[in-house]
Amino acid sequence: MADVIEELKGWLAANWDPDMTVGEWWERLGMEGWSAPSLPAESYGRGVSRNDAVRVAETIAGHGALAAPGGLGLLLAAPTIATHGTRAQIDQYVADIVTGRKAWCQLFSEPVAGSDLAGLQARAVRDGDEWVVTGQKVWTSSGHVADLGMLLARTDSDVPKHQGISYFAIDMHQPGIEVRPLREMTGRAMFNEVFLTEARVGDDAIIGERNGGWTVANTTLAFERAGLGSGAGHAAASAAIAGTVAGHLAMRAGDFVGSKRGVGGGAQFRGAGRMLIDLAKSNGAIDDPTIRQDLMRLHSIQEIGRMNTLRLKAEKARGGDIPGFGNIGKLSMSAMVRLQRDVGLRILGADGMLHSYNGRPANPLHAVVTEMALFAQGPPIYGGTDQIQRNIIGERVLGLPKEPGNERTVPFSQLPKNA
Question: Which of 70, 71, 292, 381 is found 20 to 30 A from 240 (Cα to Cα)?
Fold first, then answer.
C-alpha cells in the first residue's frame, strides 16, 4: 500500500490545480482510478481494500485537494454495476460516477414495502425495447439532486415475490418522475418520496438478469451496510455535489476545499467521541463519573469497529471473509449514534432542549449535539432496520430457521397485500 500512496502523492503534486473546475478535477481523479480505488482496475478503480481506500481519501485531503465525488453513486451504484453489469454498462454508468458527471439515488423502499423489501409493488410493464414503470418510492436519499436512480420494480407478478423483481438504472429527468422532499425533525430534508407515473426505462438498463433483481439488490444492500457500518464515508467526503442538478461541476474546485457540508447524515459518525469529550471538559460535565463512563463506552465501540475492519482486511488478504460483517457493523453504528445522542444531551443539560441548530448558540458545538440527537432515530431504521440486521445474522450466518410461511413458493399476485 505504501507504493500506492507514494504514487498518489506524486500524482497529486503533478495534477492538482485549485483553479480547475470541479468537473475537470474529478475527470482527472476518476479516470486515474483515485475516486473509487476499491473498485476493480477494469471498472475505473485500483482494486485496493476498503481500508486502503480510506487512506487514499485521507491522502487527497491531506494534500489540500478536493475529495472524490461523494454520494450513493460512488457508495452503492458503482460497486453494484461493477459486480453485475455488462462491459457496456460499466463504461456508461461507472465512468460517469467516478468523474462526478452523474449523481444517483436509491429507489428501493415503498410505503407498503419497507422492511419487507421483496413485497414491493412498483411495476414495470414491457413496451418494445422499454419498460413503463408506475409506483411510489420513499426514503429516497438525495433524490432531489439525482440524475439516475437504482430502481427495483416488479416485472413478473406470477412468480414468488423474490423472483419477479428487476433492477434498473433509470433516468430521473423525465416527466413521469416527481420528487417530493420529506422534512425531518432536524429541519432538513435529506430524504424524499418519489412518484413514478408511466416513467420509461430501457431494457438495456437492467442491471443483472431480468427478474434477477433480488440478487443484485442484495449486493447493493451489502455495500450499503458496510458503508454505514464504517461511518457512511470518511472525513474527506467532498463538499462539492456530484451530478448536473447542483451546478457544482462548473465551479472552481479550490473553492470547495476546506468547506463543510451541513451536520446530519454522516457528520455524527466520525469524530463525535473526541468532540463530546472536549465539550464535557469545557462545561465541567467531565467530572460526572457516569458521563466519563459513557464516553469510554463510545470510544470502545468506535475502536472495536476499527479493529473489526482490520480483521476483515486480514481475512480477505487470506482469501476468507467474516460472515455478516456488514450487518454487525450496521448494528454497531446504530448503538453508536444512540449513545452519542444520550451522552451528548446529558453533557448539554438543559441547553439540549433549545434546538440550537436553528439559532446562534454561544458554543457552536451545541448545534452539532442537538442535531445529532434529533437525527439519531434515523440510522437504526434506514439501510435496513436493526431488526432486519438481526434476522439476517440469525438466518444467513447462524443458520437459524426462517419464519414459517409460503411467500417463497406462492406467486406474488396471490399473496395478501398491505392496504
Answer: 381
Tell me, what DSSP letter sits at residue 413?
G
Residue 284 has which C-alpha cell? 465541567
Query: What pLDDT, on a 0 to 100 scale, did the predictor assign at position 147?
Result: 98
pLDDT in tens, 87-135: 999 999 999 999 999 999 999 999 988 778 999 999 999 999 999 999 9
Average of per-residue pLDDT across 47-59: 89
Q: What percent of the chain has pLDDT over 90?
A: 69
SS3 call for 146 = coil
* Confidence band, pLDDT 50/70/90 cuts, at residue 47: very high
- Residues of 255-285 as b/e, b for ≥16 C-beta within 10 angstroms? ebbeeeeebbbbbbbbebbebbbebbeeeeb
Show Cβ contacts of residue 341 under 8 Å, excluding neighbours closer than 6 positions: 372, 373, 376
Please tell me the distance from the alpha carbon of residue 87 to that of residue 11, in angstroms, as a whole number.
Answer: 28
CATH no. for 104-211: 2.40.110.10
Q: How far is CA 349 from the centre of its chain?
A: 32
Chain segment 1-10, per-residue pLDDT in tens: 679 999 999 9
Is residue 76's pLDDT more than 70?
A: yes
Structural contact between residues 169 and 163, judged by C-beta atoms closer than 8 angstroms: no
Q: Which amino acid is at 363?
A: N
Instruction: Please choose, from the candidates 244, 237, 255, 240, the residue with its C-alpha nearest in 3D space to the C-alpha of residue 19.
Output: 255
Evaluated on CA atoms 80, 30, 265, 152, the torsion sign reads negative
* Side-chain-facing half-sphere of 169: CA atoms under 13 Å: 29
**Closest Cα to residue 232, out of 271, 176, 192?**
271
CB 190 within 8 A of CB 265: yes
User: What dihedral angle (degrees, nearest 10) is formed by the CA atoms of 386, 387, 393, 399?
Assistant: 180
> β-strands 148-154, 165-171: how paired?
antiparallel
Q: How high is the pLDDT of residue 285?
A: 96
CA 87, CA 105: separation in Å to the nearest integer?
A: 22
* Domain at 2-102, CATH from 1.10.540.10, 1.10.357.10, 1.10.3720.10, 1.10.3710.10: 1.10.540.10
Helical segments of 34-144, H only: 50-62, 72, 78-84, 87-89, 95-98
